[in-house]
Amino acid sequence: MTARLARGDSDKLLHCLVQHKGRARKSRRHCPPVSVVINTDNRLTELKRALAALKFQAYDNFEVCVIAGPTRDGTHDFLGGFGDRLKLAACARRNLSRSRNIGIALSSGEIVAFLDDDAVPEPEWLTQIVESYDNDKVGAVGGFVHDNTGIGFQARYMTVDRLGHAREDAEASPEHNFPGSPRVPHLLGTNASFRRRALLGIGGFDEHYEYFLDETDVCLRINDAGHGMVQRSDAFVHHKFAPSDIRCEQKTIRSWYPLIKNRIYFGFSHARGALPLDRIVEEAMIDRDKWRTYVTNAVKAGLLSYDDLERFELEARAALEDGLDAATKGPRQIGKEMLEAYRADFRPFSRTFPDGRQQVLVYLDPSPGQSPVGEGQLDLVARQMASRGHQVHLVVRKSAVPFVDFDNGIWVHNLGTGTVVSGGRDEALVATLKRLTDRRQVDAAYCRTAERESLQYLSALLSS
To answer: How far is Cα 194 from Cα 228, in angstroms, rounded to an integer?
Structure first.
């Protein structure tokens, strides 16, 4: 595969820097049907972006199941406009585990992949996830999760202990993947997939977890049932952290009941037998006290009020009592009635895909002070190609803080105006192009700049 500089007039808008001819596609031995499950509530704007990103998935054998909570922001009307292109259901209660169980019942794929409504998967996501299911012993697969910058990470290689305390490790930990392990590989809920029969074998999600530790509980039960778990260093999902009933736009936690209740319930569910009961209770008290300190500091900072501090004490007391009570009752899991009520045939999702094959195109305008995305001829050309189903990346300097975001069909890579260099090596541009080319083969790259030195410099980066 060779790269070449295009021979064109230097005054043209777009200069082709690198073009790869005859790119070979990997043959896929294993193409099982996948059900992507999105559980949503009061996040219509974010949901629209997640569904738009799924239209560009390279994998072609998947359906999308959307389960909407008791939202009143127009979500139900919006989803109704998709007709039979989506599989839809409603969850009357704000209980994420129940909503996910409905998604499992609604799904028809061999693999069920969960994606948050405020998350955006990269186009290769499902293709990479499915690769790890070539091994029949594997019951769960997840990838890396970017934070809201799209550059940093919220989660990479994670493990969790039997009290529900997670930590990030330097590398994957398959040595922890055995029944009864004190620590277990952990998959973040916004980028977690499971073999459907494995999920059904453990009873799905435990509906005592209305929010928090829900997928953590599933990971431990999948592990203890003897299924293999794979943590991939790719299969990227971007998590945008939209506000919810738990946290506000400033990311301040405003509801503590499920966080405290579920911690003690989790400990009794998974650490009983491994730890003394008084140690499990003691850990729950420590967790409660940490949240009390958090709330007190938030009040001092003006992020919460003294009324919130009083509310915390009421919630904490009820949470501890209800967590202990739930531990005496056992899990609330998916049942036959739910499976029968939502049973449906596989319904392939309609992607935005070009005739022939999808190309990966990069449009570069690394000079400072350019128009925002959505204005200018370069943006227009990029959007035209994205509307045809090609994977389009636009590299610009449009604001001070660097970020990666998905905007109306285009992956926007903002280098940040604070990283501009007057000469020599543009480190921000180098890092962005390296990240792009490490993750995928670029078919062609174009640049608006006309300076010969810039053309040669960028071509060298993309050809290396």
So the answer is: 10
